[in-house]
Amino acid sequence: MSVRIVDVREITKPISSPIRNAYIDFTKMTTSLVAVVTDAVRDGKRVVGYGFNSNGRYGQGGLIRERFAPRLKEADPKSLLDASGSNLDPDRVWTAMMSNEKPGGHGERSVAVGTIDMAVWDAVAKIAGKPLFRLLAERHGREANPRVFVYAAGGYYYPGKDLSVLRGEMRGYLDRGYNVVKMKIGGAPIAEDRERIEAVLKEIGKDAQLAVDANGRFDLETAIAYAKMLREYPLFWYEEAGDPLDFALQAALAEFYPAPMATGENLFSHQDAKNLIRYGAMRPDRDWLQFDCALSYGLCEYQRTLAVLKTHGWSPSRCIPHGGHQMSLNIAAGLGLGGNESYPDLFQPYGGFPDGVRVENGHITMPDLPGIGFEGKSDLYKEMKALAA
Ligand SMILES: O=C([O-])CC(=O)C(=O)O
Ligand SMILES: [Mg+2]
């Protein structure tokens, strides 16, 4: 029996909090939750795929409801199937969504498509009766590795947060099994950021490493001033110093910062990733790439990005995606990425791991749940189920 997409639903949900990075606050942050409802039945239940977009970009209800969901519902159902006719073909679904879209200008559109694409892959893996990470490994002829490195992102600016609160937050991550933590910089004067960094380094000692994230705030002069300050400390990485599309700034910074840098969370296509690699002087032996499929046209596009990286001599193990969602955990376990971000205290219930999964020595082990595994996270699944009801 062939499979059809019978509905694509979207609801925009708040994921607001009083936190602030160097660029934005999250008091009005939202996410799109999407359900792709199929007519396939597995274990006596209708298969529904779910997706949502990562923090930092807002929900995309308008684009999803006005353009991308209608294209899927209007497509000839047979044109969305794989060669066997028994499952959806995510690339065909992607092509249908992107029909009549010009190239370039990878703005909010890439978030809308990435969110639906997550739900499509969830459905495809559920119809296949496998965890997505195992399905991906099979498709790429690889061995899956369910053990995935994760780091704890936080260290935001927020009202009334003094150094002892910041230290307490980081201690809490170490207590939960993390050995890399991340904090924000660039939202305070450099002398104050230095004090914050020193306080955290004192707290974590030899138990963990610290990454810092400027969220694209700096011009070249400030990025270099920070590089000179930061290189005095043994940091895990210096993230997104300048504007995400200023590849010349990124390239110039390499002369002032020999230790690892990271960027890419705000590059939304394989073409932009290619330009970063071509012109940003990123170093494949130490730097990190943070492209996030949920913001950048989804896993169909992420596979094209990985192919671009391969052509340019980059291993997938240099990728640690932004966003802290289970979709990237599956990609990491299935395709050999270097790990995934996580926000232990933020953006719930969307981020994190299935219930019962614990961080040990900075790693989690993926349970064998069909699809992306959302059904294993009860607080998240409750919201998803309400959308598909
Ligand atoms: O604060 C944000 O927008 C999130 C972010 O950059 C990250 O997790 O790296
Ligand atoms: Mg970041």
Automatic annotation (TrEMBL):
Annotated site (Transition state stabilizer): N55, K182, E341
Active-site residues from the entry: K184 (acceptor), H322 (proton donor/acceptor)
Gene3D superfamilies: Enolase-like C-terminal domain (3.20.20.120), Enolase-like, N-terminal domain (3.30.390.10)
Keywords per UniProt: Magnesium, Metal-binding
Residues annotated as binding substrate: N21, N55, K102, Y156, K182, E239, E265, H322
Cofactor dependency: Mg(2+)
Residues the entry annotates as binding Mg(2+): D213, E239, E265
Pfam families the record matches: MR_MLE_C
Site residues, Increases basicity of active site His: D292
GO MF term (any one): metal ion binding
Listed PANTHER family: D(-)-TARTRATE DEHYDRATASE, D-GALACTONATE DEHYDRATASE-RELATED
This protein's name: Mandelate racemase
The species this protein was found in: Bradyrhizobium australiense
Lineage start: Bacteria, Pseudomonadati, Pseudomonadota, Alphaproteobacteria, Hyphomicrobiales
